[in-house]
Amino acid sequence: MSEAHIPDGFERHFRRSGLTDPWEPLYSRKLDDRVQIGLTLAAPHCNSRGLVHGGLIAALADNAMGLSCVVALQAAGRDVGRGLVTVSLGTDYLGSAKLGEWLLIDPEPVKVGGSICFARAIISGNDQPVAMANATFKIL
Predict the structure, then answer these.
(1) What is the model's pLDDT at position 2?
(2) N or C, fewer C-beta in 10 Å, the chain?
(3) Residues 6+ apart with CB under 8 A from 135
């Protein structure tokens, strides 16, 4: 999938960091209840076998789940204060995606508590399951 074939609603990701800069271009789509992240897999995203690297999946899932918890907090009228930090992150790998495929991180906030948020995500490559992730975030 080339940059010309980015799915509808995705724009360049609004949240940059030193960790993700080498992986650009990243894309995100803001929905009412979540922030999805996607990208077309290229060499910097893959291991020596041309398959998506698990570290990239974990990092982007963490990013999307955290941003989605912020959306849930704001929807509940809560102040996100200084943001969120990851308390725990788990990733289960189900398959793989390869160079040229569209990788989608589709998160879902599960519960927003008084000081903790929980989220999960399904990660897919060209609409095929690649991984599942879950995370707990501390509200600062």
Answers:
(1) 44
(2) C
(3) 61, 62, 65, 66, 86, 87, 88, 89, 90, 118, 119, 120
Taking the C-alpha atoms of residue 17 and residue 10, their distance in angstroms, rounded to an integer, is: 19
Query: How many structural domains does the chain have?
Result: 1
Please answer whether residues 100 and 133 qualify as being in contact, where contact means their C-beta atoms are separated by less than 8 angstroms: no
CA nearest neighbour of 138 among 84, 73, 80? 84
Phi, psi of 88 (to 5 degrees): -150, 150
Mean pLDDT of the region 26-32? 96
Distance separating alpha carbons of residues 81 and 79, to the nearest angstrom? 5
CA 11 – CA 84 distance, rounded (Å): 23
Residue 137 in contact with residue 84, Cβ under 8 Å?
yes
**pLDDT at residue 41 greater than cutoff 90:** yes
The whole domain housing 94 covers: 3-139
Helix H or strand E encompassing 110: strand 102-112
Half-sphere exposure of 34 (CA within 13 A, CB side): 20
| CATH code for the domain in which residue 95 is found | 3.10.129.10
